[in-house]
TrEMBL record:
It comes from the Bacteria. It is found in: Cytoplasm. Homodimer. Its main location: cytoplasm. This is Lysine--tRNA ligase. It catalyses: tRNA(Lys) + L-lysine + ATP = L-lysyl-tRNA(Lys) + AMP + diphosphate. The gene is lysS. Residues 183-500 form the Aminoacyl-transfer RNA synthetases class-II family profile domain. Its EC number is 6.1.1.6. Its cofactor is Mg(2+). Belongs to the class-II aminoacyl-tRNA synthetase family. InterPro entries: Aa-tRNA-synt_II, aa-tRNA-synth_II, aa-tRNA-synth_II/BPL/LPL, Lys-tRNA-ligase_II, Lys-tRNA-ligase_II_N, Lys-tRNA-synth_II_C, NA-bd_OB-fold, NA-bd_OB_tRNA.
Length: 572
């Protein structure tokens, strides 16, 4: 059973009344639109002759009824526009029902309408549409939250609860239209990155989301099962190994924007599914990739902000290169004042214990170093900084360092204390790669549920030969957070993962009887849209008494009217 508020019940009645008047509140035919609200506000003063025949549609967001004429506001995808409606203009014949009844009584805030007319300027100087024709396009049966603004336009009673905003993004976008700007910027970030790659003749591709082997990153996968093939499958944690197969196949550069899925915790910077861009370019190394990333991010930032700097919280971040470069070992030495470069696993565990860093027996040397780095270094990396030359244990897919024993050619880009990009000189030695995978299997045997699996087909592809290659992954969600000055990943995802909504417990007849209600009066209670004990307790005693007595009579129930004292016991 759907629980409906008093307003929802009234709106459903309005919907029925429209139908009785022969008006379809959900017409099938299209409505012609030849202008937007923003276009009118931007150009009317300079091109008045272009706005003598306007057709526009949007949500009814406010109205001020003044007898035979009214002002209202409609909101389309670009903004709001004031409209002026006269009874005799939309009802030119003797029958004024469409204005007196339909517009004034049966239309509500949130309904979609289409209007035609001409633009003029009111005596107060506001650009408005004088309506000559109005059509209902969609009746809203749920009321929008009321967002109040002061005379300066500042919101002081808005739709701000994050739980509701993320769960009901469609409402958030309607009553907080500035939220759209975040997602417009996100789209521009992706389109500008795509344009940059296409200009370099790198090919956009698609790779499988369902994978037989979860590889390409250290993360827990989501498990699923294919019935026809009778085999387990995984939602991809990365697309790296498939993109490298394409380099083996002869492409010089491939990239993909796609969803990745990792079965891990949720917080301000993590969502179980996230968008990543990965690119692989043949005959390049991680040093070349650093220079490319600096050029890419500066161009993207300028394209969306007009400059290379952005405001992030109370900080000014500059994406113009070159970025600072600091090795993993040197960063720990600088910010934690400890040299871990020669330490074995036992020594690293002691360092973690001294710093109060929580570790477990499944963690090998690489993870222990990563824990120290995360606890002591990351928060200091505010301006774009490359952390380079990682211990080999931390990176099974990167090429061994050309000069430093025990390291690999890898960098991560950190901005505002968070990693937003990861890149390698890719490992293309199939023998070395197999040995690295075997080390991962040993970690898995120790209980590391993020260790990589052995991918025999990927190893086979390397055996055919892969040219020297550099690969890069950028987290689109985190990059968008930076370029829109948002502190949580949920703000840059249309529909972030949420916990299930709490189900409302509908009261049974027995529940009402336990409150002292005569069983014969329960139909009257339910007809008043009271379906839970919580709703019953919220009722005003005098109103409920009068309503129940009225419903008993209207429904012709075989029951006596309750006393006020009895009703008071129902709600206490």
């Amino acid at each position: 059973m759907q629980l409906l508020s008093e307003q929802e019940l009234e709106r459903r009645k309005d919907r029925e009344e429209l139908m009785k008047l022969g008006i379809n509140p959900y017409p099938a035919e299209s409505f012609p639109i030849n202008v937007t609200a923003s276009d009118i506000h931007r150009n009317y003063e300079n091109r008045k002759n272009d706005y003598k025949s306007v057709s526009i549609a949007g949500r009814l967001m406010s109205r001020r009824i003044m007898g035979s004429a009214s002002f209202a506001e409609i909101q389309d995808s670009t903004g709001r526009l004031q409209i002026y409606i006269r009874r005799d203009d939309i009802c030119p014949e003797d029958d004024k029902t469409f204005y007196n009844t339909v517009f004034k009584k049966l239309l509500g805030i949130g309904d979609f309408i289409g209007v035609k007319g001409y633009i003029f300027t009111t005596q107060t100087g506001e650009i408005s549409l004088h309506v000559t024709e109005l059509k209902i396009l969609s009746k809203s049966v749920k009321p929008l939250p009321v967002v109040k603004r002061d005379e300066e336009g500042n919101v002081y009673d808005g739709f701000t609860d994050p739980e509701l905003r993320y769960r009901q993004r469609y409402v958030d976008l309607t009553v907080n239209p500035e939220v759209k700007d975040v997602f417009v910027t996100r789209s521009r970030i992706i389109s500008n990155m795509r344009r940059y790659f296409d200009d370099h003749n790198w090919l956009e591709v698609e790779t499988p989301i369902l994978q037989a082997v979860h590889g390409g990153a250290a993360a827990r996968p989501f498990n699923t099962f294919h019935n026809t093939l009778d085999m387990p499958l995984y939602l991809r944690i990365a697309n790296e190994l498939y993109l490298k197969r394409l380099i083996v196949g002869g492409f010089d550069g491939v990239y993909e924007f796609g969803k990745m899925f990792r079965n891990e915790g949720m917080d301000r910077t993590h969502n179980p599914e996230f968008t990543s861009m990965e690119i692989y370019v043949a005959y390049k190394d991680y040093i070349w990739m650093m220079e490319m990333v600096e050029d890419l991010l500066e161009k993207v930032t300028v394209s969306v902000h007009g400059k290379s700097t952005v405001k992030v919280g109370d900080k000014e971040i500059d994406f113009a290169g070159p970025y600072r470069r600091l090795s993993m070992y040197d960063s720990i030495k600088e910010y934690a004042d400890v040299d871990v470069s020669k330490m074995d696993e036992e020594g690293l565990r002691k360092v973690c214990a001294d710093f109060g860093i929580e570790v477990d027996d499944t963690m090998g040397r690489g993870k222990l170093i990563d824990e120290i780095f995360g606890d002591k270094v990351e928060a200091h990396l505010i301006q774009p900084t490359y952390i380079t030359d990682y211990p080999i244990e931390m990176t099974p897919l990167a090429k061994k360092h050309r000069t430093e024993e025990g390291l690999v050619e890898r960098f991560e880009l950190f901005v505002n204390g968070k990693e937003i990009a990861n890149a390698y000189s890719e490992l293309n030695d199939p023998i070395d790669q197999r040995e690295r995978f075997e080390e991962q299997l040993k970690l898995a045997e120790r209980g590391d549920d993020e260790a990589m699996a052995m991918d025999e087909d990927f190893l086979r592809s390397l055996e055919y030969g892969m040219p020297p290659t550099s690969g890069l992954g950028i987290g689109i969600d985190r990059l968008t957070m930076l370029l829109t000055n948002k502190s949580t990943i949920q703000e840059v995802l249309f529909f972030p993962q949420m916990r299930p909504e709490k189900k409302v417990s509908i009261a049974t007849d027995e529940d009402f009887i336990k409150r002292g209600i005569d069983p014969a009066l329960i139909p009257a209670i339910r007809d008043l849209n009271i379906h839970t004990i919580e709703q019953l307790k919220e009722q005003d005693v005098n109103k409920l008494f009068n309503d129940v007595c009225g419903k008993r009579k209207k429904l012709k129930l075989d029951a006596k009217n309750p006393s006020k004292e009895e009703v008071a016991k129902w709600v206490e």
